[in-house]
Amino acid sequence: MFIEEAYEKNTLFRIILILLTFMILGMVVLGGLTRLTGAGLSIVEWKPIVGILPPLTTSEWLLEFSKYQQSPEFQQINFSMTLADFQNIFWLEYVHRLWGRLLALILLIPTLLMIFKKQHLELWPYLALLWIFGFSQGLMGWLMVKSGLTHNPHVSPYLLAAHLLLGFALFGISLWMTLKLYQPSLQILRQGYSERAYQKLMKLCLGALLLVLLTAFMGALVAGLKAGLLYNTFPLMGNDLIPPEIFSREPWWQDAFENPVTVQFFHRLLALITAAFCFGIWVYQRSCLIPPRLSLALGAVAVAALLQVSLGIVTLLLVVPIEIAVLHQGFAFILFGSLFFALFLIYTRKSDL
């Protein structure tokens, strides 16, 4: 009875965390759209407070447009853009930034519930991390935009990659925090199953998680360098398995991150390794004595990995269509989340019957 009353009492806390997790995923999709449509550099100022309101009059729109006209993107690429064209890209970036502000407001609700209602005080470290990474993400987003407002009308690929990895961190913390709320109903048993299998599967899932993040990092560099537009063939890159342009610059370690051909090659290679690794985990677990729920979770990981690499291949072959490219970026988080769920089941397993 006491547990049921506590559950009902904390319903708002649970709903908000679920909403927050999905909103972070939505932010990823919006970020992909702004990047692929070229809207990311349309707002050339960072005004966290007063920037909440968009231009409301013709004079305000003309002022905003005049600021954009001073940017290298307008002067070098979009010099023929009209005010109506500018408004189209402005609104997408505006919604992207507004979504970030809404995330902060949503996060404020569980914070207040924790402070004043003493709800789920055991989760305060996760909540603190969400605030820290959330502010860091906002700052990183602006630094990324600012990098494209100097001489080069393109954002820094390194800052773009850092921005994406911070998104993974926020999504992972929010997802783990949400799962912790449902831990009693999600826990699997330790006793009666192979402890050795648990330990090995945890190591394998952590390895897969690292591969996903490394592949996503290289994917962000691909996006930042526009490398996805170079070799739009698969499995060969042009007529070669290994294109002749890779490691054609000095020093070699800089080539690995700044040569678009090399970056695309390693992203493709890592994607295939990641998918094979995740599928291998599923094959291995079939021979293990583990609970059905964990087996199902690892099956979901394998399916997500195969779908993700398929979306990447389709994105490449069709020369980066916006809809599929955005789906490819968002699905990386689905794969990441499925691995997080499997790790959660293993890490929180209980020994009592």
Short summary of the structure?
By secondary structure, the chain is mainly alpha-helical. It has helices at residues 2-9, 11-37, 58-69, 72-76, 83-116, 124-147, 157-181, 183-186, 195-225, 252-258, 260-285, 292-317, 322-347. Helix 7 (157-181) packs across helix 13, helix 9 (195-225) packs antiparallel against helix 11 and helix 12 (292-317) packs antiparallel against helix 13.
Please write out the topology.
Blueprint: H1 2-9, H2 11-37, H3 58-69, H4 72-76, H5 83-116, H6 124-147, H7 157-181, H8 183-186, H9 195-225, H10 252-258, H11 260-285, H12 292-317, H13 322-347
Helix pairs in contact: 2-5, 2-7, 2-13, 5-6, 6-7, 7-9, 7-13, 9-11, 9-13, 10-11, 11-12, 12-13
Q: Profile the largest sheet.
A: none
Summed up, the domain count is 2
Radius of gyration: 23 Å
User: What are the low-pLDDT stretches, counting only 5+ consecutive residues below 50?
Assistant: 1-8
The helix count comes to 13
Report the span from N to C terminus.
Answer: 21 Å
Shape descriptor reads flat
The helix-and-strand class reads mainly alpha
Indicate the proportion of strand residues. under 5%
Provide the helix percentage. over 70%
Following the backbone from N to C, one meets helices and strands in this order, namely HHHHHHHHHHHHH
Averaged pLDDT, please?
Answer: 92
Number of strands: 0
